[in-house]
Automatic annotation (TrEMBL):
<dbReference type="InterPro" id="IPR007384">
    <property type="entry name" value="UCP006257"/>
</dbReference>
<dbReference type="GO" id="GO:0044010">
    <property type="term" value="P:single-species biofilm formation"/>
</dbReference>
<comment type="similarity">
    <text>To the N-terminal of E.carotovora exoenzyme regulation regulon ORF1. The C-terminal part is colinear with YqcB.</text>
</comment>
<dbReference type="Pfam" id="PF04287">
    <property type="entry name" value="DUF446"/>
</dbReference>
<dbReference type="InterPro" id="IPR036814">
    <property type="entry name" value="YqcC-like_sf"/>
</dbReference>
<feature type="domain" description="YqcC-like">
    <location>
        <begin position="7"/>
        <end position="103"/>
    </location>
</feature>
<protein>
    <submittedName>
        <fullName>YqcC family protein</fullName>
    </submittedName>
</protein>
<dbReference type="InterPro" id="IPR023376">
    <property type="entry name" value="YqcC-like_dom"/>
</dbReference>
Amino acid sequence: MTTHDRVRQQLHALETLLREHRHWRLDAPQAHLFTSTQPFFMDTMEPLEWLQWVLIPRMHTLLDNTQPLPEAFAVAPYYEMALAADHPQREAILAVLQDLDALFARDES
């Protein structure tokens, strides 16, 4: 299995987790919320919204177009801080994100 395949697998796992726990929104955020220049759009979106509306679609676009994946990639550290310690799915979300981050620490493609 290629790194691209493993990344896609982790993105699907993340989406499934968000859907199963009702963190997946059906209504897209307003267009102006996507114009943020802050990391993780922290000034315009909630952390789980950014996963759904920015990270997952952008990564799928790279994968679908067989584009190179980012070389330096780590989102789990932000989510360790951004998700409340008592968030019911915190550990599950962090586990998926840590697995995703680990794929970018490898030198294979």
